[in-house]
Amino acid sequence: MARLAALTGNNAAAEAIRQIKPDVFAAYPITPQTEMAEEVAQFVADGILDTEYIPVESEHSSMSACIGASLAGARAMTATASCGLAYMWELLPIAASLRSSVVMAVVNRAFNAPLNIHCSHDDSMGARDSGWIQLYSENAQEMYDNLIQAVKIAEDETVRLPVMVCMDGFIISHAVERLLLLEDKKVKNFLGEFKPAYPLLEVNNPVTLGACALPDYYTEHKKQHSEALRHSIDKIMGVANEYAKLSGRSYSLFESYQLADAEYGIVILNSAAGVTKAVVDKLRKEGVKAGLLKIRVYRPFPAAQIVQALKNLKVVAVLERTDSFGGVGSPVFTDISAAFMEASTKEKPLMVNYVYGLGGRDVGLEDIGKVYANLQAINQRGKIEKSFAYLQARE
Amino acid sequence: MKELQGWKDIPIGTAIIEAGSSIKYLTGGWRDNRPEHNKDKCTNCLLCWVYCPEGAIIVKDDQVTGINYDYCKGCGICSAECPPKVKAITMVKEPKLM
Ligand code: SF4
Ligand code: SF4
User: Fold this and answer.
1) Whose CA is nearest to atom 3 of ligand 1?
2) Among A8, A21, A363, A395, which residue has the fewest nearby CB atoms (within 10 Å)?
3) Which of A70, A161, A198 to mutate to test binding with chain B, by most B CBs within 10 Å of its CB?
């Protein structure tokens, strides 16, 4: 029987980790992930969880420990946020190109300066090109579900790639929410045993990983990694379907909310999808054809599927909790624009990019309402005057 | 030259699954300067053998008998470590290939 619980996002993630039962958990506490790292430590101290908890001295070390453990054949997990993720930067592409199966919870938090402990997506968005799979979660339930699926995806023999699972700092990590938990045994059976490709501790078949590859071979290693990440999209969907049977909750590459016949759409990630849905409902009652596309799988980027879902809209706003300083727009806007360039379709919406919610700035019904009003105004004018803007910056 | 493998043929995750495969990599191709060993001067102290990073100093019955140019990368460490009073190894510029 599923268990109904009231948990914070951090509690929910810790509960998923307890059920996933990693052989190794190496983490360094950082706000707003601290509660999760503490709770996993408590499970281990209380003898509830049989995991080697490595209390490392930094995130550089936590990721290093996880890579070694994963390649040795252990199920390895960690969790971090913001500067912590930045501090393990050097190891991220190593974890990915070595094809480790590390799963990491990322509690999205702004980058300094100025110092801020609240939510932006600077951390995981910055890490988007490190070769990891990235899943985003709207609420505690999705964080819990995504973490369990992430382990299955990461360890699959056709994938073998690390997965980052993100949720919004404080807004989700520290807010109590009602959610459904699976039975321990169901999670255990769903995940099965981790079988690494070339276990480092297999003394009868010694291997070397991460040795030098000069210009004659480096390209082939990167091409192989690139293909693996692109193809992981099938397995991500396969795992989602299996998980739906287990949990009754279905997941896809993205969630479409009132999108099929929509004229005005917002593309968003993580918690702000909640408030956006409320505005969509309100607008629908008023006869405005509003819709939402909430991205769950950002890497690999489901380009063709997103083009298909957005091509018939009139105007779309991509709302992002980060700025790709000096870029054409923020990361998701840039990806969707490129996806339309690549696609053969002639239909495409007018598209704008708004930066919102930085450093935990609350995004309310009025903010999202304003965006849909802007989209309608753009449609009336028939053209975009400013494609990139900060939604909430005071002049 | 050995044919290079494509991306589909190499093991995943940068793995080298053949033990001791570095023997196939002839680091001699890196060499700019070639160490030349003078048997008459050599006292067989074996300092060069200890310090050579490539194991390219050939020793038979406690005697240095030569240098393995398949693996000698020309770093010059052997020549620098050979005691100043002996100087049994001199570095000589390799002839230009092109
Ligand atoms: S030059 Fe370097 S690699 Fe060659 S024999 Fe001397 S020490 Fe060894
Ligand atoms: S260091 Fe010089 S003297 Fe000693 S064994 Fe080598 S070549 Fe001979």
Assistant:
1) B72
2) A395
3) A198
Strands of the sheet containing A52-54, edge to edge, are A52-54, A24-26, A76-80, A103-108, A163-168, A133-136, A297-299
Bridge-based pairing state of the strands A388-390 and B33-37: unpaired
Domain boundary among A224, A247, A270: A247
Distance CA(B65)–CA(B55), nearest Å, equals 13
How many angstroms does the Cα of residue B32 sit away from the middle of ligand 2? 21
Which ligand 2 atom is at minimum distance from the Cα of B44? Answer: 5
- In the predicted model, residues of chain A with pLDDT beneath 70 are none
Q: What is the CATH number of the domain that holds A45?
A: 3.40.50.970
Which residue among A99, A206, A210 places its CB closest to the CB of B12? A99
Evaluate whether residue B38 is within a structural domain: yes
> Is B16's CB within 8 Å of A97's CB?
no
ipTM of the complex: 0.88
For chain A, the distance separating the N- and C-terminal CA atoms, rounded to the nearest angstrom, is: 54
Q: Which residues line ligand 1 (CB under 6 A)?
A: B 35, 52, 54, 56-57, 67, 72-78
Report yes or no on A32 lying in a domain: yes
Is pTM beyond 0.90? Reply is yes
What integer pLDDT is reported at residue B95 of this predicted model?
Answer: 82
For ligand 1, the distance from its centroid to the CA atom of residue A212, given in whole angstroms, is 20
Beta carbons of A341 and A378 less than 8 angstroms apart: no
| Collapsed DSSP state (helix, strand, coil) of residue A326 | coil
Is residue A395 one of the residues assigned to a domain?
A: no
Q: What is the number of domains present in chain B?
A: 1
Cβ–Cβ below 8 Å for B13 and A98: yes
Residue B64 beta carbon below 6 angstroms from any ligand 2 atom: yes
The parent domain of residue A215 ranges over 3-247
Alpha-carbon distance A332 to A258, whole Å?
A: 20
pLDDT in tens, A168-227: 999 999 999 999 999 999 999 999 999 999 999 998 999 999 999 999 999 999 999 999
Q: Is the Cβ–Cβ distance between A64 and A98 less than 8 Å?
A: no
Q: Is the CB of B90 under 6 A from ligand 2?
A: no
